[in-house]
Amino acid sequence: MDLPQKESARDTNNSLFFSPKDSEQLKDALHASKEMPKLCGSHYPISIPFIVVNEFCERFSYYGMKAVLTLYFLYYLHWNETLSTTVYHAFSGLCYFTPIFGALIADSWLGKFKTIIYLSIVYVIGHLIKSIGAIPPVGDSTTHVILSMTGLFLIAFGTGGIKPCVAAFGGDQFEAEHAQARSKFFSIFYLAINLGSLISTFATPALRGDVKCFGGDCYALAFGVPAILMVIALVVFISGNSLYKKFPSEGDILGSVCRCVGFALQNRWKHRSGQYPKREHWLDWASENYPNKLIQEVKMVTRVLFLYIPLPMFWALFDQQGSRWTLQATRMNADFGGFSVKPDQMQTLNPFLILVFIPVFDLGVYPLVKMCKFKFKPIRRMAVGMILAAVAFAVAAIIEVKIDETNMSEPVAQESLLQVLNLASEPVEIEIKDSESFSQANLRYQDPDYLKLPVKTENENFSFNMQYRGMRSSCSHALSDRQVYSLIFYQNGTKPSCKLVKDLSQKPWKGLAALRFINAGSEAANITVGKADFGSVAGNYGVSAYHTLERGYYNHAKCRIGNNEFSLALGLLDFGGSYTVIIERESEGKIPVLKSEDISANNIHIAWQIPQYVLISAGEVMFSITGLEFSYSQAPPSMKSVLQAGWLLTVAFGNLIVLIIAQTVALEQWAEFALFAGLLFVVCIIFSIMGYFYIPVDLAGSPEFINGIYEQKLPSGEIMLHLIEKKTKL
User: Fold this and answer.
1) I need a labelling partner for 176 at 20 to 30 A (CA). Which of 94, 239, 419, 469 fits?
2) Would you say residue 572 has pLDDT above 80?
């Protein structure tokens, strides 16, 4: 530092001048240069537990809310699966686009500590608004959508804004020579993330489904508990204020990077003719206006960001655990003997497996690979993680094919499905227009099957010719295409009669069972099954509306006819099944019932999802933890948050890929899974080739600048002179 620079840092009275911001930076710099207390004599600063607990609570808050989000869209806001998936991934993408703003605020203005605090407050406000939007009496459906979207936007800005700061802030607490301890910190940090995720993804679905409020699932409570955890996260983080090592913000780092890159491109274009000497790197064309240190740091950042280009494809698969995989779980059998799991609770497998796999990989797999003298470098680990995720989706595609084999085929255009429920005592011969005649036995002896009927017009009349006990009769009904019907055949005195009713065309949502009643008695019947009140079902083959119930055995349903009350034994109503129960006439003080399973219950067990969760969780350990540490280790000290934001930005683009494919590619679900698996295999090959030519940078122990201050301990006078020099250059 030369004398003129020192003198230029003085005012007209030859006294040093500092703005309030400079004074604050000086205070932070002096604090950062001190030797901070360690945990039990180790290399771990005592401030680390506050950061880890903060991350645990914040991830509980985020993943707990997100675990029930898809079902909230489906069953509370009543959106369809495509729109629910689209908004889910749009929100997830926004959560990972906003880190770039958090990094900009932290590195250019507030510093990491204050950025985390202020954006956490925004985060809490978003949770509160989201919870209020889930309270039915608060406005109409439009109000609920507005509040929900506003809350989600604030949550996305809050969680995304602090993401690049918390991990980098934790890394800042370690000395340069303690790189190994810092590496272990990132594993502990990731453990905290997944422990919070594990507990919350099990707890919030239970709060949603097991606690009833306002006459249904309690989404307000499921969103309110994560809001409380976010408040705790904020309080814990502030509590460690005096223990943190805080570095002052460097100025407009991101702006300087962008201006440096822009000037290099512009200057290179101006001197594109061959008469000018070539330069080693295209960024060297910025050397006329920018210092060599900045250019070298930008080179480091751009090399890593270029390597990140293929990475979004991994996240496109990974984040579908909360959307497509949860929807897949709703079509599976979740009975484990004494208990059953909810579809959105299957997501707890991922954080649970992460908690198991992290020590297994750190203490077992990686040391074993090292003993075999195989260099398992970070890029190779990430490539293997991508392969495992692709295999997980190939397994998911196979499971989806098996599920589809058990589903009732939905009618297509110009087609209807029809079954005959024979409630008479003997078989009936039925002839339908343009179809072969067939015999349908009594429902007690033979379950009906659906027939496909061609429907050429919007409402086409069909004539049903019936022969029963030598008597012939007919009835006519209009059928519409893409609909499913039941033709109820019964004996009206001595004359055969029929009645047409509309059936469900799809499996019930959320893995619930659907149930309706047909009252074959002469008097009206008031029926209650569990908490479902079917009201009064008219006699003489009146039909109730469908109600959905939790899976279970219902052998004590209540049926009141006149002044008499009877108990109905309905048996098992299984996951995803649709049932029609026929109440027959009273006999010997009892009400006999017949039960028809119109849509088969889910018979592919939800445990078959475990292999795909194991594969993608193992892939996450190798890909995500390695990438998180790699992003920190390869970043120039002044741009840690910027490169962390770049890493998180790959998650955002991954969700964008899901949005594009979900909206533009009309594929069956198994084919979509297979497409994602194939795309990731191809991208993995590209990434491996790019990684082969990448040379990692080792910054450990080098006297690189961290926010304008050497990592080596500097005397306070040198720190002051450095800040004076910085003020002069500005």
Assistant:
1) 239
2) yes
Token pair in block for residue 72: 């909230």
Q: Are strands 578-583 and 513-519 parallel, antiparallel or unpaired?
A: parallel
Contact status, residue 133 vs residue 147, Cβ threshold 8 Å: yes
DSSP 27-87: HHHHHHHS---BSTTSSSBTTHHHHHHHHHHHHHHHHHHHHTHHHHHHHTS---HHHHHHH
Q: Which amino acid is at 290?
A: Y
* CA distances to 31, 32, 34, 314 from 39, in Å: 18, 18, 16, 36
Provide the pairing of β-strand 593-599 with 578-583.
antiparallel
Name which of 627, 640, 625, 623 is nearest 301 in CA terms: 640
- C-alpha closest to that of 144 among 125, 130, 126, 128: 130
DSSP string, 613-624: HHHHHHHHIIII
Dihedral angle sign, alpha carbons of residues 353, 354, 360, 366: positive
- Find where tokens 């954006």 sit: 119
Closest CA to 578 of 342, 386, 419: 419
Token duo for residue 628: 């998180």
Helix (H, G, I), strand (E, B) or coil at 626: helix
pLDDT-derived band at 126 (thresholds 50, 70, 90) equals very high
Task: Give the integer Cα–Cα distance in Å for 663 and 67.
Answer: 22
d(CA 427, CA 439): 7
Average pLDDT over residues 625-646: 75
What burial letters (b/e) apply to 106-121, b meaning 16+ CB within 10 Å?
Answer: bbbebbbbbbbeebbe
C-alpha 101/C-alpha 97 separation (Å) is 8
Dihedral pair phi/psi, residue 587, rounded to 5°? -145, 120
314 SS3 class: helix
pLDDT, position 711? 33
Q: Helix, strand or coil for residue 502?
A: strand
Task: Give the C-alpha separation, 373 to 443, whole Å.
Answer: 70
Please report, for residues 81, 455, 508, 589, 604, the alpha-carbon distance to residue 482 in angstroms, rounded to integers and kept in the order given.
Answer: 19, 9, 17, 42, 26
CA distance 409 to 201: 33
Residue 726, both tokens: 């910085």
CA–CA distance, 471 with 448 (Å, rounded to integer): 22
For residue 452, the tally of other CB atoms under 10 A from its CB is 13
- Rg for the chain, CA atoms, rounded: 33
Give the tokens for residue 22.
Answer: 């400079």
Domain annotation for the chain: domains and CATH numbers: 1-32+713-730 (no CATH), 36-251+308-405+605-712 (1.20.1250.20), 252-307 (no CATH), 415-599 (no CATH)
Q: What angle do CA 160, 164, 165 make, to 5 degrees?
A: 105
Predicted pLDDT at 108: 73
Give residues with Cβ within 8 angstroms of 727, minimum separation 6.
Answer: 9, 17, 18, 22
Looking at every residue in the chain, the average pLDDT score rounds to 81
Q: Is 14 exposed, middle or buried (0-12, 13-18, 19+ CB in 10 A)?
A: exposed
* Alpha carbon distance 376, 307 (integer Å): 18
Tokens standing for residue 693: 């030519």
For the stretch 579-624, pLDDT in tens is 999 998 877 778 888 899 998 899 899 999 999 999 999 999 899 8
Q: Which two tokens stand for residue 266?
A: 């512009």
Residue 300 CA: distances (Å) to CA of 306, 566, 626, 639: 10, 78, 18, 10
pLDDT digits (tens, 9 = 90+) for 157-207: 999 888 878 877 887 777 766 667 776 777 788 788 878 888 888 888 888
